[in-house]
Specification:
This protein is an alpha/beta fold and 200 residues long. It contains 7 helices and 7 strands; from the N terminus they run ααβαβαβαβαβαββ. It has one domain (34-197): Vaccinia Virus protein VP39 (Rossmann fold, 3-Layer(aba) Sandwich). Strands 3-2-1-4-5-7-6 form a 7-stranded mixed sheet, with helices on both faces. Strand 2, helix 4 (88-97) and strand 3 form a beta-alpha-beta unit. The chain starts with 8 loop residues before the first helix and ends with a strand.
Length: 200
């Protein structure tokens, strides 16, 4: 959201990010970034996705919807995006600003991933794209989220996660057979993008 529209570019950037920063201050246990993700990071996150073949994508922690818009723009007609956002403020922001028949926006914890997929009659998904701050999520909760993600991924499915450190590597390696990562330096702060799968 722009707050000062007639000022210089730097002020505009700060204004756009201020809402995100305010949400970070209020919800430190569920919001892991102080600013929206960069287009460079989004490109890194989307690189492993074959949008021509993806029928169902799950997004965990969309925040202000930067990745959500990007995913919807790339996804083919008739595909589905289920986005789980726990923050009511972010949920309302996305609900107000993004209109797309492919999107199912859910204001609930990603712990309930399997439950919501069952309600939608979806048994397997092609990709899970996660922006969740694993470092600050309680162990019981993040283990349940990751275990559910493993269960719902199709045979060729991939789990894609960004974090601001390599602390999540051992955890992800304990859940997936294959784990690789790439560095995304052009972001605030710089990030690591993990690509995980259970393909043999």
């Amino acid at each position: 959201m722009l707050i000062f529209v007639a000022l210089n570019n730097k002020t505009r950037i700060l204004a756009k990010k201020s809402g995100f920063f305010n949400e970070f201050l209020k919800e430190r246990k569920t919001v892991g970034a102080v600013a929206p993700s960069s287009k460079f990071l989004m490109k890194r996150m989307f690189a492993p996705i074959d949008f021509d073949k993806a029928d169902v994508i799950v997004e965990l922690g969309p925040g202000n919807g930067v990745f959500t818009k990007g995913l919807l723009a790339e996804m083919k007609p008739g595909s589905r995006l289920l986005s789980f956002e726990l923050s009511r403020n972010f949920y309302e922001h996305i609900n107000l600003n993004i209109r797309d028949e492919k999107l199912s926006l859910i204001n609930d914890s990603a712990e309930k991933l399997e439950q919501y997929l069952a309600l939608e009659g979806i048994h397997k998904v092609d990709y899970v794209v996660s922006s969740l701050p694993l470092a600050v999520i309680p162990d019981v909760v993040k283990n349940k989220i990751l275990d559910s993600s493993v269960k719902v991924l199709g045979k060729e499915g991939k789990y894609i996660q960004f974090q601001y450190s390599l602390n999540a590597r051992k955890l992800l390696q304990s859940k997936f057979k294959k784990v690789s990562f790439k560095f995304a330096p052009v972001n605030i702060p710089p990030a690591f993008v993990y690509q995980c799968s259970n393909n043999s």
